[in-house]
Amino acid sequence: MHVVLVEPEIPPNTGNIARTCAATNSCLHLVEPLGFSVSDRYLRRAGIDYWEFVPVRIHPDWHAVVEWLGNPDKWYYFTSHSSRFYTEARYDPDSVLVFGKESTGLPGDLLEKYPQSTYVIPMNRHVRSLNLSNAVAIVVYEAMRQQSFMPMELS
Of the candidates 16, 49, 80, 155, which lies 20 to 30 Å from 124 by C-alpha distance? Predict the structure, then answer.
């Protein structure tokens, strides 16, 4: 599975997401510009000792991640501006899960280009959004649940 973060801004969120990717054998893709340095101590601290278990790819822009992963029409885009719940999507081991930056979410042009592929995590209308690392964990684990948690290496 692939987790794509478009222009992430907060190092501890990305570090926590890296830990989730390590726990689920998922690949993490970071689309620049990043709001931090990948050597940032807060990023490393949040990931603790798991960085060696996370394939991380840094892409200079959206076009580069599309070139690397292929057909973006089949990807899943997560936003608070969708009417379909993330549980309605049907994930497979090669799913590409796309999340936007903490302050503004995914760019409007992506949401307009792929409206049939947008999903929301339902929440109380008084809450604008969830923390990015929490949102990623919710979706990744739903995708893993749909695959009977395979391929996971359980201890």
Answer: 16
- What digits encode the pLDDT tens for the residues 126-151? 888 889 999 999 999 999 999 988 76
Helix (H) or strand (E) holding 78, with range, is strand 76-78
Following CA atoms 59, 62, 68, 71 in sequence, which dihedral angle do they give, to the nearest 10 degrees? 160
Beta carbons of 47 and 74 less than 8 angstroms apart: no
Predicted local confidence at residue 154, as pLDDT: 62
Instruction: Name residues of the chain where pLDDT drops below 50.
Output: none
Instruction: Give the per-residue pLDDT at 153.
Output: 64
Q: Known binding site: residues? A: 100, 121, 129
Radius of gyration of the chain (CA): 15
- Tell me the CATH number of domain 2-146, given options 3.40.50.10320, 3.40.50.12780, 3.40.1280.10, 3.40.50.1970: 3.40.1280.10
- Residues within the annotated binding site for S-adenosyl-L-methionine? 100, 121, 129
Which residue in 139, 120, 97 sits closest to 2, CA to CA? 97
CA distance 28 to 20: 10
